[in-house]
Specification:
10 strands; alpha+beta; eight-stranded antiparallel β-sheet; 420 residues; 14 helices
Length: 420
């Protein structure tokens, strides 16, 4: 391997490793707060009030909870390592986590969050069934099923293999959709709370939900509890439709969830399957529609005055066949300047679908003083300015360019800079 590549990897590892304790603290802390809150409220404070809602007669003891806690700590260590993959994806411009300045809009925020939950439900169902294959179960999933009578602490009681399977979801999803940092936090919060509730051992949902045409799509606590007692059914995480479509819902689920021995339903048929797929595709389309018009390159092409007040940069297509935008220094005003003429300050920016904004991203921003270019993005502001953001090592800086006045544009054109 090239020594330069090794040096770059070493430098990246040296930068990332100090962040790992923080990632672990967040992941394990999320487990402690989420599972601990559910356990304290449901299994301790309200245990007498909910005694008629208890699914199993026996209550798991300290020995089981201690084992679950230890394996969950190991799982959190694996979950935290996904931060390395996400950082690599962001550096490689194949993943995007944006903040409030991203401007994707409320509709996109909500739609992408809903899609992430739906996608995880599908991912979980199929990887869960894979983990139940006899040749994989013993090494990949048996740790979780040691808790035949689960508790909220069972939520993350995985071995390293299963933890890695679950940890891969967020990086994989980010390859397809940009996500707001808050949306990811809400997704992770929803995940641990729903997971802890599903393992609580108390049916917290109204029993009539199980047969409701809409609410019956949600997995009740009984649904997953039955999976722990009979591992060959009820593989779903948040929703029942995959089990119903694939015929893996336990035949006694409705009767046990409702308390009515006569309660029953058939697996979802072809029409319901098509309706479910259509609903998911529709949500995906709605999310993408929330990002309407693509920024037009002609809107940003031409001459721009950098924020130093003397450097004129021409933005144009990087080459005749390219749809990407580059920016080259064509003029510098004043004495003892001009050394940077011909320097490419902006490289390979592509236009982006962002609601209410004209934005170009996934490019590189160089400094007039030289040095390594930083990854960046450009936003055409409502007042006509061009906001350029460059980020390196987790730190971002902004500068705002304006169109040069007529006199400066004329000077730039006179030395071959072209026109606006």
């Amino acid at each position: 391997m090239d020594v330069t590549v090794l040096d770059q990897l070493a430098a990246w590892a040296g930068e990332m490793l100090p962040r790992y304790p923080g990632w672990f603290t967040f992941d394990f802390g999320r487990y402690i707060v989420g599972a601990g809150s559910v356990y304290l409220i449901v299994n301790v404070i309200l245990s007498r009030t909910l005694k008629n809602r208890k699914i199993r007669t026996k209550t798991p003891g300290f020995r089981q909870i201690s084992r679950e806690f230890k394996s969950s700590m190991l799982a959190a260590a694996v979950f935290s390592a996904s931060g390395f993959l996400i950082d690599l994806g962001i550096r490689g411009d194949v993943m995007t986590i944006y903040g409030d300045e991203g401007g994707y809009g409320t509709a996109y925020f909500l739609g992408s969050l809903a899609l992430m939950i739906l996608a995880q439900d599908a991912y979980f169902y199929w990887t869960h069934r894979l983990l139940h294959l006899p040749q994989i179960f013993r090494r990949g999933h048996s740790e979780h099923h040691k808790s035949i009578n689960p508790t909220p602490w069972t939520a993350y009681s995985f071995n390293m293999i299963e933890a890695a399977v679950h940890a891969a979801f967020v990086p994989l999803f980010l390859l397809f959709l940009p996500m707001h940092g808050l949306a990811i936090f809400l997704f992770l919060t929803h995940m641990i709370i729903r997971n802890a509730i599903g393992h609580s051992g108390y049916e917290l949902f109204p029993r009539w939900w199980a047969t409701h045409p809409i609410l019956g799509q949600i997995t009740m606590v009984t649904h997953h509890d039955m999976h722990h007692s009979n591992g060959n059914s009820n593989f779903g995480l948040y929703f029942t439709w995959w089990d119903r479509m694939m015929g893996t819902e336990h035949s006694d689920y409705l009767s046990k969830a409702t308390g009515n021995p006569a309660a029953a339903r058939k697996s979802l048929g072809a029409r319901a399957t098509a309706a479910t797929v259509a609903a998911v595709v529709g949500l995906m389309a709605a999310t993408l529609i929330a990002n309407p018009a693509t920024a037009q390159n002609d809107e940003v092409k031409g001459l721009w005055l950098a924020n130093d007040g003397k450097t004129v940069v021409k933005l144009d297509s990087c080459n005749e066949k390219s749809s990407r935008i580059c920016g080259t220094v064509v003029f510098q005003d004043g004495e003892n300047v001009g050394d940077q003429i011909g320097m490419q300050l902006l490289k390979n920016f592509k236009n982006a679908n962002v609601q209410g904004m004209k934005r170009w991203e996934a490019g590189k921003v160089a400094k007039l003083s030289g040095g390594k270019a930083s990854k960046g993005k450009m936003v055409l502001l409502e007042d006509g300015g061009l906001k350029i953001t460059s980020c390196a090592r987790g730190r971002c800086s902004n500068q705002t360019w304006a169109r040069p006045n007529a006199a400066l544009a004329q000077k730039a054109a006179a030395v071959g800079g072209g026109s606006r």
